[in-house]
Amino acid sequence: METLEFIIYPDGRVQEKVTGIVGASCAEVTAAIEAQLGTVLAQEQTAEFFAAKLYQTNAATTQTTLSDW
What single Pfam family name could you report for this chain, choosing any that match (predicted)? Predict the structure, then answer.
């Protein structure tokens, strides 16, 4: 489940936390919001940022040869 959490402090600072998005695509999701909020002072990537999506393919290769019997 993808979630965006925002904590707005009394002094106007906003803390944003993204969970459930694997890889760097979280930056694409939050770019428009961050542009409206103002200057980003710091970013801290989580383990999900560095994780990679796994893709599995099932393929079988067969080779037949004719014998000279």
Answer: DUF2997
> What does the pLDDT look like over 24-40, one tens digit per residue?
888 888 888 889 888 88
Domain that includes residue 37, residue range? 3-50
Number of domains in the chain: 1
Q: Does any domain span residue 69?
A: no
0.85 exceeded by pTM: no
Residue 6 to residue 60: CA distance in whole angstroms: 48
Is residue 63 one of the residues assigned to a domain?
no
